[in-house]
Amino acid sequence: MTAALISGWSGRRQPSRVVEWEFERLTIARDFSRHVVTTMLAERAEHGGWELDRVRIGPDGTRRVVLRRKIIRMRPTLT
Predict the structure, then answer these.
(1) Is the CB of residue 72 less than 8 Å from the CB of residue 37?
(2) Is 9 a residue whose pLDDT tops 70?
């Protein structure tokens, strides 16, 4: 179901030296109701750790959504 809803891009960028974020851009067709889109984004937040960064609704009704999540780097420990 998700593959039919969206087309997306996933990338990384580093806005600051302290926190690194991974971004995912989704384009959702206008055919889907607000309830369906909300449910889909809530599932991504709960199961994938994503949070909403930006939503834009185009003149044709398509939603462009940008999700983000922190990249957690493991530091080597001394043993």
Answers:
(1) no
(2) no
